[in-house]
């Protein structure tokens, strides 16, 4: 199993990084130490950052057929010389970044490099980014920084200009389907449908391939949109989408708490039913505190809604494809609804289809900006009426 095996549809980028890692040798002066990996959600930028970190740490530079002990630890998130900063908050705080900088100044304990990975660096406010700026511009001699963002434009120019930017491609449906078949051991039809519905988002494709309820919810949303004729239909569909997002977010947040509690017990040598010692009880309770659970639920609900908005946009994308006679070249996302989408493409003008995609983009920004999710969804659905 290669360290790069989980990277889907990024062959040129993987070849480049493999060459860089293999050719660094002992000449660190030729090694770029500040990187910015950019790619749309689901393109695998975080997985690529982790694979690159593993290759830098591993004695075989990640070129072997088998995962080394060091590589396995990096991929599992347990290597002492690789630090990850990821957040389920709306923004990354100054305190977290300062702690990361302190760690970056320490010499690596066993590896040739200390690697610092920041996911979603676009969630940093400008004052937080300024704290990081000097470290990115002049890293410690033994430190490599890997930042991840949706695009270079989402990062402040001061950071962007001081990093080497790696742009990821959107994986093809064929590449995603092949990955699903190999990693999940599912049949070709199931993998192909999950990849098509996910539109290049690897994480969503895995979700569609393994959770039939999520696929059913998506199918119901598309059907509801295509049957929507009056304002009452729009409001009811908005309420349904908001409720689904809330319920799924609550389930996901609770499942995450259970995993973290189990991990906490494992790290501290405790069994599933062992009493937690008093000196670490506070840290254990913090994992499942009401504030923590609420925060995770809010963040997760936005992710679920974002997926729903992508589903809505895919319908109008298909309308545009049919209106421009491009279905033979690029195909439809919602093939199962071809007849209803064809009918919609007749009722809706080309300008109207594009305008509705714009309405969805506006709603996405409003929801990310802490607006009222239900009100934003109701307004959107009414704007989508034909």
TrEMBL record:
Keyword Coiled coil: yes
Gene3D superfamilies: P-loop containing nucleotide triphosphate hydrolases (3.40.50.300)
SUPFAM superfamilies from the UniProt entry: P-loop containing nucleoside triphosphate hydrolases
Domain of life: Bacteria
Residue ranges the record marks as coiled coil: 243-270
InterPro entries referenced in this protein's UniProt entry, alphabetically: AAA+_ATPase, DNA_Rep/Repair_Clamp_Loader, P-loop_NTPase
Keywords linked to the UniProt accession: Coiled coil
Domain AAA+ ATPase: 31-311
PANTHER family referenced in this protein's UniProt entry, alphabetically: DNA POLYMERASE III SUBUNIT DELTA, REPLICATION FACTOR C / DNA POLYMERASE III GAMMA-TAU SUBUNIT
Protein name, as recorded: DNA polymerase III subunit delta
Organism (species): Bombiscardovia nodaiensis
